Amino acid sequence: MPTRPTKDQLAAAQDATIPDVLKPRLDVLFCGINPGLYSGALGLHFARPGNRFWPALHAGGFTPRLLDPSEQHDLLDLGLGITNVVARTTARADQLTDDELREGGKALTAKVLKNEPRWLAILGITAYRTAFGEKRAQVGPQERAIGDTRVWVLPNPSGLNAHWTPAGLATEFAALRARVVTERPSFGLHPQ
Predict the structure, then answer these.
(1) What does pTM read for this prediction?
(2) Cα 128 to Cα 62: distance, rounded to the nearest angstrom
(3) What pLDDT band is residue 72 in, cutting at 50, 70 and 90?
(4) Domains of the chain with CATH codes
(5) Active-site entry in 34, 51, 84, 156
(6) Do you know which InterPro entries this protein is assigned to (predicted)?
């Protein structure tokens, strides 16, 4: 597969879906808003150059090294996974309707109840507020739980979300990791 999709491949990726990186009982299930066209064309989560998910994941201490999107399935061995609030790809997240986000919140709830991750980390405060009707939610741990799964909201790592710097993203990811490690000290004992 090419590492950069062509213009035609990007156009063909509109409304495509990408399979989740998921198995039961993960430590953290990271949840994007929805895949972009670049990700849809490659079939990989957070694949667009400039998306800061993979660097923030590493800088926050979740991975022993910076992973490439093509290594997304390696996350499962680390107790991590990836899904999205809305499965369909779009050029920009603002192309999703509020109804799609609310329906995505219901589907995500069912997925979480079935797979029982310890934490659900939603990447985008505005999407979280809309999908779950939490108008005053802030970045960080939430009072909401889905079954036994606790919810944490992280900033959207898209390069378009410029008011969150790489250092700020790393700090927020590290705060979640610190909570996970506090609750399960063996979490993240990966070779450095």
Answers:
(1) 0.94
(2) 22
(3) very high
(4) 7-183 (3.40.470.10)
(5) 34
(6) MUG/TDG (IPR015637), Uracil-DNA_glycosylase-like (IPR005122), Uracil-DNA_glycosylase-like_sf (IPR036895)
